[in-house]
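In this supplementary section we document a worked example of the pipeline. Step one takes a protein sequence of length 709 as its only input; no multiple sequence alignment statistics are reported here. Step two produces a three-dimensional model, which step three serialises into structure tokens for compact storage. The input and output of this example are shown verbatim.
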Amino acid sequence: MTTVTPLKGFVGTAHTRVEGRDKVTGAARYAGEIPFAELAHGWLVLSTVARGRIRAMDTEAVLAMPGVLTVLHHGNALHVETDYAGLMGMKPDPSVALFQHDRVPHAGWPVALVVARTSEQAREAAEALVVHYDQEPHDVAFADGRPDAYPAADTPVAPAVAAKGDLEAELARSAVVVDAEYTTPEEHHSPMEPHAATARWDGGRLEVVDSNQGSIWVQGELANLFSLDPASVRVRSEHIGGGFGSKGVRAHQVAAVMAATVLHRPVRVVLTRRQMFSLVGYRSPTAQRVRLGADPDGRLRALEHQALNLSSTVHEFLEPCALPGRVLYDADAHHTAHRIVRLDVPTPTWMRAPGEAPGSFALESALDELAEKCGVDPIDLRARNEPETGPVSGLPFAGRRLLLDCFREGARRFGWADRDPRPGLRRDGRWLLGTGTAAATFHAGAFPSTAAMTAEADGTFTVRISAADIGTGARTALTLIAADALHVTPDRVRVLIGDSDFGPAMIAGGSMGTSSWAWAVTAAADELRERLVPGATIPPDGITVRSDTSAAIAARSQKERHSYGAHFAEAAVDVTTGEVRVRRMLGIFAAGRIVNPLTARNQFVGGMTWGISMALHEEAIRDPASGAHVGADLAGYHFAANADVPLIEADWLQEEPNADDPIGIKGIGEIGIVGAAAAVANAVWHATGVRHRSLPIRPDRVLQAGRHA
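The serialised model returned by step three reads:
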């Protein structure tokens, strides 16, 4: 006999990760570590040319090497389908259709898979495989003004173009105009755990153990690719060592399934760090033009944001940089649009705050330039352009819009009132000091999800949901949410995730994971509590209910739903060496109900750290001659290390409950990076009086700008 004791209040209190002990002791096993009987290992062979055709492959010598079981390539691979609607109705990237033809569209394109009994044998054989190409001229030069750039098509994420009012007329009427171009470089995800997948057939069912951001997503894509019934495919992804948008359906999973099907034994494919630079996507470089027209007091009359990104020749991907301008500031006329140029490069993909991260650098830098021209404090300028409804959509905001509240609280804590607006005045020995600020916003949505919840005979509860914990603390958050919804303590709740057999659920992406899963878990808990009779005996197999939030989410009214934030940064610049150091940084956020302050602060600080990295360090360079990366490893691709990260403070405001959103949770995985790079860049301007419109702000660029100032 068991009873449910009314008890609430765990959401909002700090709680260590429920799987933390397993991770620090090594008991938590990742996709590349789980043992299987008769496991074989695959090693991908990547093209060394950037464009052309495969003329021949010397496979005979490789097949004779010790331990080699097979070599898969375009001449013997299984056929796969790509004509289907993938995640959220988007077409899949044909790059995952491995070995279907002899064409090579970019350097690092998979041309073969060598499978052997050990990983070492597979690697040695893969490196020995000689591939002959008919090479063709390639083009990897990304730049604004290319005549072959074209308007992007609408995506399920956002329209490619959004406009209201007469832009040119309002610009002509403006007393102050900012017209500037900004660029951001190619950036890479580089999660701590490389991508890995193991595939095997078990009793007529395909099982894939993988590291991904949505097991149900990978299940559906693999079923489509191999023309399988989704029920005959199971994807498990229990522990994931980071993803940032890169861990979707990739070449290694498809390769593992192909090899397991041919060899009738489990096959594991793990990517190397270098292979990840061409196989798992990246953030496209961007070229952006922002035009702002304003009255003398800084009130915007016109806001234009034009953005260009690259994509591959095999698939179109849009980096929606102009999104922030559509929701942040009011103006009489708005025009935001995206263009794409297709080059001989791998396909970009979603990367933490896709669109918003590079787009906010351009927009928030331009706002800072406008504040300078108008002689208005940057925070006051934003207050004068605060919209009452969606600036372009006209839709009401869901709940209070707390952007200015974030700025006010951040300004108080950071000491903004003591800031002299004139640049280049503060000095600390050889360092020039400056402070900058920028706004942050990210869409706060929820996606239909299902969850199953069981009241066990021993008085505990089991939650099953196809969620993914990519290091964000999702398991722990869902444990607290379930405990509160059930009115029990967290130690009586066990949350199982990362298994496609648990049914449809939102992926870990778009800052919609926790809100979507929490809605489904809460709905299941509410129904289960209604079915539990106080004092009644629970049968040995428990009592299980299943929720589906599709109808509830579809019934929500159309509103502007966003999280907000304000970044503050202090930068020190050595004008003799060009070195830039961020000395301190503060972020204040309004992101709904914070489930677990411990892991939430980790997410905010992680995003802000990446903003520093984006502003000062990260830049992948392509060699025009080879079309490949220069330094495709963590020695050549530098990101912020411990020594680069200053004191970072992150905090949040309490939000009032919103009747339109019964859960009250907004995603926090991405808003921490939005605007962070702009705050650093604006601080560098305030320190030196020199504006940097291209990231990263490298020492050589600081020195060169100083010479031309």
